[in-house]
Amino acid sequence: MNIYRPHEFGELIGKSTHTLQVWDRKGILKAHRSPTNRRFYTHDQLSEIMGVKVDKRIAVSYCRVSSPGQKDDLLSQQKAVADFCVGAGIAVDEAIVEVGGGLNLKRKQFVRIMSLVEARAIHTLVIAHKDRLARFGMDWFGYYLEQHGCKLVIINNEALSPESEMVQDLMAIIHCFSCRLYGLRRYKKIIKEAISDNPDSV
User: Fold this and answer.
1) What does the pLDDT look like over 186-200, one tens digit per residue?
2) CA distance 104 to 172
3) Hey, which of 15, 119, 173, 201 has its CA 20 to 30 A from 58?
4) Do residues 130 and 138 lie in contact, with contact meaning Cβ atoms separated by under 8 Å?
5) What is the pTM of this model?
């Protein structure tokens, strides 16, 4: 049985650790206790609070855009996914929509989906294009879903994957590594200066 520490559980359900403490005291959601009196939560509790029973597996569709300004792209994506599911005979129990970057793996709905997959509460996940779920690492995510009994259905409509998002994500990656490179160069300079000031220490 998988268990979660309070801060992990809080992140998954979008609540603070303080809220969980209040719920525990009031009996709203009682935490389990370890032999050392540490609080923890279980997958059953996760499924319960998310409103999905583990014994009732569901089909989910997921649509995502990076920014609120892509409202039209999001609507087109939702319509395409809905039409595909009808044509493929997939009865979607929950259509999830999210606004957030593909590089951000802490997106609220993305984390929720991964948690439900881990709890084996989802039997089918439908997305318009593989980068709608995550910009990178889709081979691993596909494997992860398969190992938890979830079928990943990708429409593979590249028109539903805005090119502007790719440019934004690439710029974000370049910025991230540029900052790291600058940090390494600065660190290297500090070391050289320390060595020159204290040659006997080498």
Assistant:
1) 656 665 666 666 655
2) 11
3) 15
4) yes
5) 0.60
For residue 50, count CB atoms less than 10 angstroms from its CB and return exposed for 0-12, middle for 13-18, buried for 19 or more. middle
In the chain, DSSP assigns E strands to 3-4, 32-33, 39-42, 58-65, 94-99, 122-127, 151-154
Residue 186 CA to residue 34 CA, distance in Å, equals 46
The dihedral of CA 130, 135, 140, 141: what is its sign? negative
CA–CA distance, 61 with 98 (Å, rounded to integer): 11
| DSSP symbols for 78-116 | HHHHHHHHHHHT---SEEEEEE--TT-TT-HHHHHHHHH
Residues with pLDDT less than 70, the chain: 1, 51-55, 159-202
Q: Are 59 and 91 in contact (CB under 8 A)?
A: yes
CB 6 within 8 A of CB 37: no
- Contact predicate 160/77, CB 8 Å: yes
Give the CA distances from residue 29 to residues 37, 44, 49, 120, 182, in Å, rounded to whole numbers and listed in that order: 17, 12, 9, 22, 47
* DSSP assigned state of 34: -
By residue count, the chain amounts to: 202
